[in-house]
Description:
Shape: globular
Number of domains: 2
Largest sheet: 3 strands, mixed
Oligomer: single chain
Amino acid sequence: xxxxxxxxxxxxxxxxxxDNSISVKTPYRSKSFIQELxxxxxxxxxxxxxxxxxxxxxxxNIEDEVFLFGDVYSIDSNEASLLREKLHRVxxxxxxxxxxxxxxxxxxxxxxxxxxxxQKYATIMNLEYSELKFRKMRRRWGSCSSxxxxxxxxxxxxxxxxxxxxxxxxxxxxxxxMNHSKKFHALVEYYLPNAKALRKELKECRVLS
Length: 209
């Protein structure tokens, strides 16, 4: 368990991580307080741990498979041709180098596919953004800044296309509503009527490389 002491906090928070570890952020150093907090939230903690166990964990055998658009493809498939070329050029085949090649593959695919998706929905929604960026992120699928810069996680390429579209529309909607108000969700649902189902599915999604 990780205890993070921050005297600036007004309240205490418990986080259940995907690996089932527990993090507690609190302004109090008292061990008895933390134990009481954990006891009080024990039912909620057990519920979250159960959710983690129910999440589908998808892995691929690096150098043999690739996870793309919700499916696992053989490295010999047409879908993996770009990755196959990159792997054939690598000299040092240690795991870190191979994973770096996978990340580069997802970024290159993302730059092409996501750019088209963002431009398509920006036109449909009659919206303009200042810049589109791509990078691998650990905790977020995307973001939209006050400067109208949209950043998308390159590992979105592992998700089904319907969920990718949801993330794109979600971030574009932030160009109008920089919050998650009822108006924001109504805007997203106007363009994606099944947005609620997609949002729920995305929260349950856990993809590992």
